[in-house]
Description:
There is one protein chain. By secondary structure, this protein is of the alpha/beta class. It has 13 helices and 17 strands. The protein has three domains: 189 residues, FAD/NAD(P)-binding domain (3-Layer(bba) Sandwich); 104 residues, 2-Layer Sandwich (D-Amino Acid Oxidase, Chain A, domain 2); 46 residues, no CATH class. Helices cover 36% and strands 22% of the residues. A hairpin with a 3-residue loop joins strand 9 and strand 10. The protein is globular. The site of flavin-adenine dinucleotide has 35 residues, from helix 1, strand 8 and helix 8. Flavin-adenine dinucleotide binds next to helix 1, strand 8 and helix 8.
Amino acid sequence: xxxxxxxxxxxxxxxxxxxxxxxxxxxxxxxxxxxxxxxxxxxxxxxxxxxxxxxxxxxxxxxxxxxxxxxxxxxxxxxxxxxxxxxxxxxxxxxxxxxxxxxxxxxxxxxxxxxxxxxxxxxxxxxxxxxxxxxxxxxxxxxxxxxxxxxxxxxxxxxxxxxxxxxxxxxxxxxxxxxxxxxxxxxxxxxxxxxxxxxxxxxxxxxxxxxxxxxxxxxxxxxxxxxxxxxxxxxxxxxxxxxxxxxxxxxxxxxxxxxxxxxxxxxxxxxxxxxxxxxxxxxxxxxxxxxxxxxxxxxxxxxxxxxxxxxxxxxxxxxxxxxxxxxxxxxxxxxxxxxxxxxxxxxxxxxxxxxxxxxxxxxxxxxxxxxxxxxxxxxxxxxxxxxxxxxxxxxxxxxxxxxxxxxxxxxxxxxxxxxxx
Length: 421
Ligand SMILES: Cc1cc2nc3c(=O)[nH]c(=O)nc-3n(C[C@H](O)[C@H](O)[C@H](O)COP(=O)(O)OP(=O)(O)OC[C@H]3O[C@@H](n4cnc5c(N)ncnc54)[C@H](O)[C@@H]3O)c2cc1C
């Protein structure tokens, strides 16, 4: 029987383990942390999982948090500043946000219940050679950890050498949900983007606030300011900045109740995006695959990393089942298949880190005028191949808008110049 070793119990490793187990392949999962460790950890992300990921979870029987009246049913977009606009795009398949500490712990427990062999410990690169001798194939899904350094960086797809945004966010009291329930997104020119997100966490239904702070903007400080030194000062300053720069979000905050739920519910940091080769050869000659963030680490600005990791897990699981030999040719073919979706998610995300080309402004304008366009803009987040295609050229965008029945309004005719006496 084929035996696969999977390193890392984030969404990539967990989904691959579940998919292979469901297909009757023997899996050993090498996890750094037990379910208890996961539950006790710090918040490290706020992951919106879109329709295709949720369908995969249903097929795997791990859709534990499905509640018809709780999820993200739409996106509320507010562009603020000099050229303000606002629209709401409804998702054709609701998205969902669950605290990943609960999510990882539950899926790991589930794998244990399904009889999967789970070995706890933090591996080093040399361990992979030992693992490769005991499995037909090893897949490294260790996220941002140092193990990924065995996979060479792909310069062509890694345009940045430093983070493009400063990140902070957390679970907050005093932030009410919009109705219908959805993710609100405020674009604050010069200061970054701020979202509020309905999330299922330790106390049931809660609210997350997340900011992609622009370097030099007024929110940058919150990515490094030490919350524990003076929680009140942190929260007061944050509230002031939200009031000044993101009024649509401030409107739904009750200042009396506003505050972080617990110190461990705060995220602060930054991501330097990097794409690595999707496979590597060990000194022993065996080949290993990279999966999830270990393959491509993207800034979270457009919510693609975990969704792309889940998608890639399915591609890898199918390929493992369809083949018997896991050599270089196999790894190359898998990388190519994974890259169709992951490459689009990466290119689209990286494009969002740079000043937008002029034609892209048309998309949001069209979304304010046409509900079909607004809904399609929301749905694009669940389909990075379409999302990136639309944003990749003016022609593609025009074709997308025309398909949705939207035409630019004709420019107003000029009044004839008054005759000069
Ligand atoms: C603030 C924030 C918001 C985000 N929002 C979204 C979103 O809305 N939608 C979205 O799709 N994505 C989002 N992302 C990205 C998403 O969180 C990641 O892409 C996703 O979690 C990657 O999953 P992974 O399994 O590859 O890695 P991870 O989740 O990092 O898991 C890696 C696992 O490997 C383990 N590990 C590490 N090193 C070792 C070792 N040496 N030995 C053994 N185990 C090891 C770790 O303990 C961990 O359990 C967000 C990220 C951030 C930071």
